[in-house]
Amino acid sequence: MKSMTLTSYGAEAPFVEADLPRPLATPGHVVLRVKATSVNTIDTMIKNAGKDLPLSPDLPAVLGMDFAGVIEEIGGGVTGFAVGDEVYGCAGGLADLQGALAEFMRADARLIAHKPKSLSMREAAALPLVGITAWEGLHRAGVAAGQKVLVQGGAGGVGHLAVQLAKHMGAEVSSTGTGSDQMAVIEGYGARAIDFKAEKIEDYVAAHTAGRGFDAVFDTVGGDNLPNSFAAAALNGHVVTTVALSAIDLTPAHFSGLSLHVVFMLLPMLHDVNRAVHGEILSNLATLVDEGAVKPLLDEKTFDLSAVGGAYARLQSGQAIGKVVVDV
Hints:
This protein has 11 helices and 15 strands. It is α/β, with parallel strands linked by helices. It folds into 2 domains: 2-127 and 274-327, Medium-chain alcohol dehydrogenases, catalytic domain (Quinone Oxidoreductase, Chain A, domain 1); 132-262, Rossmann fold, CATH 3.40.50.720. The strands form 3 sheets. Strands 3, 4, 5, 6, 7, 14 and 15 form a 7-stranded mixed sheet that branches. A 6-stranded parallel sheet has the order 10-9-8-11-12-13, sandwiched between helices. Strands 1-2 form a two-stranded antiparallel ribbon. Helix 11 links the parallel strand 14 (303-304) and strand 15. The termini are close together. The mean pLDDT is 96.
Protein backbone atom coordinates (compact mmCIF):
# COMPACT_ATOMS: atom_id res chain seq x y z
CA MET A 1 0.00 0.00 0.00
CA LYS A 2 1.11 3.55 -0.65
CA SER A 3 2.14 5.56 2.39
CA MET A 4 3.97 8.79 3.20
CA THR A 5 6.65 7.87 5.71
CA LEU A 6 9.17 9.71 7.83
CA THR A 7 12.66 8.22 7.84
CA SER A 8 14.02 11.01 10.05
CA TYR A 9 12.60 13.58 12.44
CA GLY A 10 12.98 17.35 12.31
CA ALA A 11 11.35 20.47 10.93
CA GLU A 12 13.02 19.95 7.55
CA ALA A 13 12.58 16.18 7.41
CA PRO A 14 10.67 15.22 4.24
CA PHE A 15 7.83 12.75 3.91
CA VAL A 16 8.93 9.92 1.64
CA GLU A 17 6.59 7.75 -0.42
CA ALA A 18 6.93 4.10 0.57
CA ASP A 19 5.18 0.85 -0.35
CA LEU A 20 4.27 -0.88 2.90
CA PRO A 21 2.46 -4.16 3.59
CA ARG A 22 -1.30 -3.78 3.97
CA PRO A 23 -2.22 -4.28 7.65
CA LEU A 24 -4.30 -7.29 8.68
CA ALA A 25 -7.29 -7.24 10.98
CA THR A 26 -6.54 -8.53 14.47
CA PRO A 27 -9.02 -9.30 17.28
CA GLY A 28 -10.86 -6.14 18.33
CA HIS A 29 -9.65 -4.20 15.31
CA VAL A 30 -10.78 -3.26 11.82
CA VAL A 31 -8.82 -2.48 8.68
CA LEU A 32 -10.12 0.51 6.78
CA ARG A 33 -9.35 2.23 3.53
CA VAL A 34 -8.38 5.77 4.50
CA LYS A 35 -10.20 8.43 2.49
CA ALA A 36 -9.03 11.56 4.32
CA THR A 37 -6.94 12.60 7.31
CA SER A 38 -6.48 15.95 9.03
CA VAL A 39 -3.37 17.55 10.47
CA ASN A 40 -3.28 18.45 14.16
CA THR A 41 -0.72 20.48 16.08
CA ILE A 42 0.43 17.33 17.87
CA ASP A 43 1.23 15.76 14.48
CA THR A 44 3.58 18.63 13.66
CA MET A 45 5.10 18.44 17.14
CA ILE A 46 5.90 14.76 16.65
CA LYS A 47 7.44 15.40 13.23
CA ASN A 48 9.59 18.28 14.49
CA ALA A 49 10.62 16.93 17.90
CA GLY A 50 10.77 13.20 17.25
CA LYS A 51 11.96 11.13 20.17
CA ASP A 52 12.17 14.20 22.39
CA LEU A 53 8.46 13.48 22.81
CA PRO A 54 7.73 10.20 24.61
CA LEU A 55 4.78 9.45 22.35
CA SER A 56 6.64 9.60 19.02
CA PRO A 57 6.78 6.35 17.01
CA ASP A 58 9.99 4.61 16.01
CA LEU A 59 11.32 5.33 12.54
CA PRO A 60 10.32 4.73 9.82
CA ALA A 61 7.03 6.27 10.96
CA VAL A 62 3.59 6.74 9.42
CA LEU A 63 1.95 9.69 11.15
CA GLY A 64 -1.65 10.93 11.02
CA MET A 65 -4.05 10.50 13.93
CA ASP A 66 -7.43 11.57 12.52
CA PHE A 67 -9.14 9.78 9.66
CA ALA A 68 -12.34 9.01 7.83
CA GLY A 69 -12.66 5.91 5.69
CA VAL A 70 -14.42 2.69 4.77
CA ILE A 71 -14.08 -0.61 6.65
CA GLU A 72 -12.59 -3.36 4.48
CA GLU A 73 -11.93 -6.10 7.04
CA ILE A 74 -13.14 -6.90 10.55
CA GLY A 75 -11.23 -8.78 13.23
CA GLY A 76 -12.61 -11.24 15.74
CA GLY A 77 -14.83 -9.94 18.50
CA VAL A 78 -15.76 -6.70 16.75
CA THR A 79 -19.46 -5.86 16.94
CA GLY A 80 -21.48 -2.91 15.70
CA PHE A 81 -19.54 -2.52 12.45
CA ALA A 82 -19.65 -4.22 9.06
CA VAL A 83 -17.51 -4.27 5.93
CA GLY A 84 -18.43 -1.22 3.86
CA ASP A 85 -19.32 1.00 6.83
CA GLU A 86 -18.12 4.59 6.64
CA VAL A 87 -16.34 5.43 9.89
CA TYR A 88 -14.17 8.08 11.49
CA GLY A 89 -11.85 8.26 14.45
CA CYS A 90 -8.48 9.07 15.99
CA ALA A 91 -6.58 5.83 16.38
CA GLY A 92 -2.94 5.97 15.26
CA GLY A 93 0.09 8.02 14.34
CA LEU A 94 1.86 7.68 17.69
CA ALA A 95 3.76 5.10 19.76
CA ASP A 96 3.37 1.70 18.03
CA LEU A 97 0.14 2.58 16.20
CA GLN A 98 0.44 3.15 12.44
CA GLY A 99 -1.14 6.42 11.35
CA ALA A 100 -3.50 7.50 8.58
CA LEU A 101 -0.98 8.80 6.01
CA ALA A 102 -1.45 5.56 4.09
CA GLU A 103 -4.04 3.87 1.90
CA PHE A 104 -4.98 1.41 4.65
CA MET A 105 -4.92 1.53 8.43
CA ARG A 106 -5.67 -0.87 11.28
CA ALA A 107 -7.77 0.74 14.03
CA ASP A 108 -9.04 -0.40 17.41
CA ALA A 109 -12.81 -0.67 16.98
CA ARG A 110 -13.32 1.01 20.35
CA LEU A 111 -11.76 4.21 19.00
CA ILE A 112 -14.01 4.65 15.97
CA ALA A 113 -17.64 5.46 15.23
CA HIS A 114 -19.91 5.62 12.22
CA LYS A 115 -19.21 8.78 10.23
CA PRO A 116 -21.79 11.58 10.40
CA LYS A 117 -24.08 10.97 7.45
CA SER A 118 -24.31 14.66 6.60
CA LEU A 119 -20.54 15.13 6.21
CA SER A 120 -18.11 14.33 3.44
CA MET A 121 -15.06 12.22 4.21
CA ARG A 122 -12.95 15.39 4.26
CA GLU A 123 -15.23 17.06 6.78
CA ALA A 124 -15.47 13.98 8.99
CA ALA A 125 -11.69 13.58 9.08
CA ALA A 126 -11.40 17.07 10.58
CA LEU A 127 -13.42 16.19 13.67
CA PRO A 128 -12.10 13.38 15.87
CA LEU A 129 -9.15 14.73 17.89
CA VAL A 130 -10.46 18.27 18.27
CA GLY A 131 -14.04 17.13 18.79
CA ILE A 132 -13.16 14.68 21.54
CA THR A 133 -10.93 17.28 23.18
CA ALA A 134 -13.64 19.94 23.16
CA TRP A 135 -16.24 17.47 24.45
CA GLU A 136 -14.03 16.24 27.30
CA GLY A 137 -13.01 19.73 28.36
CA LEU A 138 -16.52 21.14 28.54
CA HIS A 139 -17.87 18.12 30.43
CA ARG A 140 -15.00 18.09 32.90
CA ALA A 141 -15.67 21.77 33.59
CA GLY A 142 -19.34 21.00 34.21
CA VAL A 143 -20.55 23.50 31.63
CA ALA A 144 -24.34 23.86 31.78
CA ALA A 145 -27.16 26.00 30.47
CA GLY A 146 -27.08 29.61 31.62
CA GLN A 147 -23.38 29.68 32.45
CA LYS A 148 -20.98 32.22 31.01
CA VAL A 149 -18.19 30.50 29.10
CA LEU A 150 -15.06 31.97 27.53
CA VAL A 151 -13.22 30.05 24.81
CA GLN A 152 -9.68 31.26 24.21
CA GLY A 153 -8.94 30.79 20.51
CA GLY A 154 -12.45 30.16 19.23
CA ALA A 155 -11.47 30.06 15.54
CA GLY A 156 -8.92 27.28 16.05
CA GLY A 157 -9.28 23.53 15.75
CA VAL A 158 -10.45 22.71 19.28
CA GLY A 159 -11.80 26.20 19.86
CA HIS A 160 -14.34 26.32 17.04
CA LEU A 161 -15.90 23.08 18.25
CA ALA A 162 -15.80 24.12 21.92
CA VAL A 163 -17.73 27.27 20.98
CA GLN A 164 -20.39 25.29 19.13
CA LEU A 165 -20.74 22.60 21.78
CA ALA A 166 -20.94 25.14 24.61
CA LYS A 167 -23.66 26.99 22.69
CA HIS A 168 -25.53 23.72 22.21
CA MET A 169 -25.29 23.11 25.96
CA GLY A 170 -27.08 26.41 26.54
CA ALA A 171 -24.15 28.49 27.73
CA GLU A 172 -23.60 32.16 26.94
CA VAL A 173 -20.37 31.98 24.98
CA SER A 174 -17.67 34.57 24.39
CA SER A 175 -14.48 33.79 22.52
CA THR A 176 -11.14 35.42 21.83
CA GLY A 177 -9.45 35.79 18.49
CA THR A 178 -7.98 38.53 16.36
CA GLY A 179 -8.37 39.77 12.81
CA SER A 180 -11.52 40.01 10.74
CA ASP A 181 -11.45 36.37 9.58
CA GLN A 182 -11.29 34.95 13.10
CA MET A 183 -13.88 37.39 14.38
CA ALA A 184 -16.23 36.38 11.59
CA VAL A 185 -15.81 32.68 12.38
CA ILE A 186 -16.60 33.22 16.05
CA GLU A 187 -19.60 35.43 15.41
CA GLY A 188 -20.83 32.96 12.79
CA TYR A 189 -21.28 30.41 15.58
CA GLY A 190 -23.42 32.84 17.57
CA ALA A 191 -20.72 33.66 20.12
CA ARG A 192 -19.50 37.07 21.23
CA ALA A 193 -16.14 37.79 19.58
CA ILE A 194 -13.42 39.44 21.67
CA ASP A 195 -10.27 40.78 19.99
CA PHE A 196 -7.58 39.93 22.54
CA LYS A 197 -5.20 42.42 20.93
CA ALA A 198 -7.65 45.28 21.32
CA GLU A 199 -9.48 44.50 24.59
CA LYS A 200 -7.99 44.13 28.04
CA ILE A 201 -9.05 41.18 30.17
CA GLU A 202 -10.47 43.32 32.94
CA ASP A 203 -12.49 45.29 30.37
CA TYR A 204 -14.21 42.33 28.73
CA VAL A 205 -14.73 40.62 32.09
CA ALA A 206 -16.44 43.77 33.31
CA ALA A 207 -18.48 44.21 30.15
CA HIS A 208 -19.68 40.63 29.74
CA THR A 209 -19.82 39.24 33.29
CA ALA A 210 -20.41 42.41 35.35
CA GLY A 211 -16.92 41.90 36.74
CA ARG A 212 -17.73 38.48 38.22
CA GLY A 213 -15.70 36.46 35.75
CA PHE A 214 -16.59 33.51 33.53
CA ASP A 215 -17.90 30.29 35.04
CA ALA A 216 -15.64 28.30 32.73
CA VAL A 217 -12.69 29.28 30.56
CA PHE A 218 -11.60 26.84 27.86
CA ASP A 219 -8.04 27.84 26.98
CA THR A 220 -6.91 26.23 23.72
CA VAL A 221 -3.81 28.43 23.65
CA GLY A 222 -2.46 27.52 27.07
CA GLY A 223 1.14 27.94 28.15
CA ASP A 224 1.92 31.61 28.70
CA ASN A 225 -1.76 32.45 28.12
CA LEU A 226 -2.95 30.52 31.19
CA PRO A 227 -2.55 33.50 33.57
CA ASN A 228 -4.95 35.40 31.29
CA SER A 229 -7.49 32.60 31.71
CA PHE A 230 -7.03 32.63 35.48
CA ALA A 231 -7.71 36.37 35.45
CA ALA A 232 -10.89 35.90 33.40
CA ALA A 233 -12.40 33.14 35.56
CA ALA A 234 -14.96 33.62 38.30
CA LEU A 235 -14.26 32.68 41.92
CA ASN A 236 -14.37 28.87 42.20
CA GLY A 237 -14.58 28.75 38.41
CA HIS A 238 -13.10 26.19 36.03
CA VAL A 239 -10.19 26.59 33.64
CA VAL A 240 -9.63 23.94 30.98
CA THR A 241 -6.45 23.81 28.92
CA THR A 242 -5.04 21.60 26.22
CA VAL A 243 -1.52 23.02 26.59
CA ALA A 244 0.01 22.81 30.06
CA LEU A 245 3.63 22.24 28.98
CA SER A 246 4.83 25.28 30.85
CA ALA A 247 6.03 26.51 34.25
CA ILE A 248 3.14 28.62 35.54
CA ASP A 249 2.64 30.46 38.83
CA LEU A 250 -0.59 29.05 40.24
CA THR A 251 -0.92 31.76 42.90
CA PRO A 252 -3.77 33.57 41.06
CA ALA A 253 -5.61 30.27 40.64
CA HIS A 254 -5.18 29.55 44.35
CA PHE A 255 -6.62 32.86 45.53
CA SER A 256 -9.61 32.45 43.21
CA GLY A 257 -10.21 28.84 44.20
CA LEU A 258 -10.04 27.72 40.57
CA SER A 259 -10.22 24.16 39.29
CA LEU A 260 -7.66 23.50 36.54
CA HIS A 261 -8.42 20.70 34.07
CA VAL A 262 -5.71 19.49 31.70
CA VAL A 263 -7.14 17.61 28.71
CA PHE A 264 -4.73 15.20 27.02
CA MET A 265 -6.99 13.14 24.79
CA LEU A 266 -4.22 10.81 23.58
CA LEU A 267 -4.14 8.90 26.88
CA PRO A 268 -6.52 6.11 25.74
CA MET A 269 -4.34 5.41 22.69
CA LEU A 270 -1.09 5.57 24.64
CA HIS A 271 -2.17 3.48 27.62
CA ASP A 272 -5.15 1.45 26.35
CA VAL A 273 -7.37 2.99 29.02
CA ASN A 274 -11.06 3.83 28.48
CA ARG A 275 -10.78 3.60 24.71
CA ALA A 276 -14.50 2.89 24.38
CA VAL A 277 -15.23 6.35 25.82
CA HIS A 278 -13.74 7.93 22.70
CA GLY A 279 -15.93 5.82 20.46
CA GLU A 280 -18.97 6.88 22.48
CA ILE A 281 -18.06 10.57 22.23
CA LEU A 282 -17.61 10.25 18.47
CA SER A 283 -21.04 8.59 18.19
CA ASN A 284 -22.63 11.39 20.20
CA LEU A 285 -20.77 14.00 18.17
CA ALA A 286 -21.99 12.43 14.92
CA THR A 287 -25.57 12.72 16.16
CA LEU A 288 -25.11 16.40 16.95
CA VAL A 289 -23.54 17.01 13.55
CA ASP A 290 -26.41 15.32 11.74
CA GLU A 291 -28.87 17.36 13.81
CA GLY A 292 -27.17 20.55 12.64
CA ALA A 293 -25.80 21.58 16.05
CA VAL A 294 -22.11 21.26 15.14
CA LYS A 295 -20.14 21.62 11.91
CA PRO A 296 -16.40 21.39 11.30
CA LEU A 297 -14.52 24.27 9.72
CA LEU A 298 -12.07 23.34 6.97
CA ASP A 299 -9.23 25.44 5.64
CA GLU A 300 -9.62 26.51 2.01
CA LYS A 301 -6.38 24.87 0.86
CA THR A 302 -6.54 21.25 -0.33
CA PHE A 303 -3.80 18.62 -0.35
CA ASP A 304 -3.46 15.05 -1.54
CA LEU A 305 -1.32 12.34 0.07
CA SER A 306 1.77 13.14 -1.99
CA ALA A 307 1.59 16.79 -0.83
CA VAL A 308 1.36 16.07 2.90
CA GLY A 309 4.49 18.12 3.57
CA GLY A 310 2.64 21.17 2.28
CA ALA A 311 -0.30 20.40 4.57
CA TYR A 312 2.00 20.34 7.61
CA ALA A 313 3.60 23.60 6.49
CA ARG A 314 0.18 25.16 6.02
CA LEU A 315 -0.84 24.41 9.60
CA GLN A 316 2.47 25.63 11.00
CA SER A 317 2.29 28.86 9.00
CA GLY A 318 -0.56 30.11 11.19
CA GLN A 319 -2.46 31.15 8.06
CA ALA A 320 -4.99 28.32 8.06
CA ILE A 321 -8.55 29.11 9.08
CA GLY A 322 -10.05 25.78 10.12
CA LYS A 323 -8.65 22.27 9.93
CA VAL A 324 -6.08 21.33 7.29
CA VAL A 325 -7.20 18.12 5.56
CA VAL A 326 -5.31 15.67 3.35
CA ASP A 327 -7.20 13.57 0.78
CA VAL A 328 -5.99 9.97 0.66
